[in-house]
């Protein structure tokens, strides 16, 4: 198979893990490619820039869940499936651990593929996607933000607090769960809307995934995050919806 490798390369340990991972996969007969920046870090040249992600059969993420979320953005741009090899802390979204890489071929051959719902948001003329969640948050740590949250035209709640999380079933086990939201089975067609540190009690809402979530800012600017990536500030209103594309993820 043609494998496009996405890996963390911030520490010497991560670089060693990536080198060992690529060597193992190539030893199994796979052809590996990666971005120039990663090839330079690992091999001091562009010798492993062999084909584009669009020409690959599978995108391989090496790291934890954070690395997989970054790799998901790469896979989405080329409409490629994604598999995660956990070399991080939690690795909830990863299909296997790095120490079990000798079973990679078996995992791919027999592994369960999940078609993951994504979220989309249009912001400053661009469309952004999220596998886990989109968060509307306060931007001043010392203050709260005042938000009204709607599903279509139906008001769900008003929040004066830290943030609102809109999560997919995949993302329901991440920030949403930490904020007291429910875990949603990956086969349920739903989105979860959960407030964070609100000064009034707001219960999480689970809504059908064809609903448009509208977040209106009443007071203070709000920031928007897609899978932890800060997109910028906005002063008024934002629309969050189920995306027009999906991601195939090996589990």
Describe the protein.
- The protein is α+β, with helices and mostly antiparallel strands.
- The protein folds into two domains: 2-111, Rossmann fold; 119-244, Probable inorganic polyphosphate/atp-NAD kinase, domain 2 (Tumour Suppressor Smad4, Sandwich).
- Helix content is 20%, strand content 41%.
- It has five helices and 19 strands.
- The chain has helices at 12-27, 36-43, 65-78, 104-110, 175-178, and strands at 2-7, 31-34, 58-63, 82-86, 96-97, 113-116, 119-123, 126-130, 133-138, 145-151, 154-161, 163-167, 190-196, 205-208, 213-219, 222-226, 229-234, 237-242, 247-250.
- A six-stranded antiparallel sheet has the order 8-7-18-15-10-11, with no helix packed on it. Strands 14-13-12-9-16-17 form a six-stranded antiparallel sheet, with no helix packed on it. It has a five-stranded parallel sheet with strand order 2-1-3-4-5, with helices on both faces.
- A hairpin with a 2-residue loop joins strand 7 (119-123) and strand 8 (126-130).
- The mean pLDDT is 95.
């Amino acid at each position: 198979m043609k494998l496009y490798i996405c890996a963390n390369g911030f520490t010497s340990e991560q670089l060693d893990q990536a080198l060992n991972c690529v060597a193992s996969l190539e030893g199994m007969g796979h052809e590996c490619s990666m971005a120039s920046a990663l090839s330079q870090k690992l091999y001091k040249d562009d010798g492993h820039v062999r084909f584009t992600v669009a020409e690959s059969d599978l995108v391989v993420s090496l790291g934890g869940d954070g690395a997989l979320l970054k790799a998901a953005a790469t896979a989405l741009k080329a409409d490629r499936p994604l598999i995660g090899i956990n070399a991080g802390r939690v690795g909830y979204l990863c299909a296997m651990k790095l120490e079990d890489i000798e079973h990679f071929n078996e995992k791919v051959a027999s592994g369960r593929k999940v078609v993951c719902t994504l979220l989309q948001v249009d912001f400053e003329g661009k469309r952004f996607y999220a596998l886990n969640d989109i968060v509307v948050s306060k931007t001043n740590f010392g203050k709260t933000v005042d938000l009204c949250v709607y599903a279509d035209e139906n008001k769900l709640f008003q929040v004066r607090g830290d943030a609102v999380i809109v999560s997919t079933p995949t993302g329901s086990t991440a920030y949403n769960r930490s904020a007291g939201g429910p875990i949603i089975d990956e086969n349920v067609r739903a989105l979860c809307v959960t407030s964070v540190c609100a000064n009034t009690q707001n219960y999480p809402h689970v809504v059908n995934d064809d609903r448009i979530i509208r977040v209106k800012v009443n007071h203070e600017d709000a920031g928007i995050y897609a899978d932890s990536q800060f997109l910028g500030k906005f002063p008024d209103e934002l629309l969050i919806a189920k995306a027009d594309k999906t991601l195939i993820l090996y589990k």
